[in-house]
Known about the structure:
76 residues; alpha/beta
Amino acid sequence: MSRSGPIVIVEDDRDDQFIMEKIFQGMGVPNQRVYFTSCDDAFTYLQTTMVQPCIIISDVNLPRQSGIEFKRQIDQ
């Protein structure tokens, strides 16, 4: 985990993304936020980026792959 790395967020609802962004801004969180609507896209990003994320936040109820399955995929 890198405290200065981006915050990776997997959320398929654009309204929820908007709310989360407002919360991060209101809290003054300086980290870049990288939003994905699917676990597949987020996993590809994690495999190809050279930057270590600060934290990964994922919705649990996602189409095709749940947030729990996504965590298991990352752990492997």
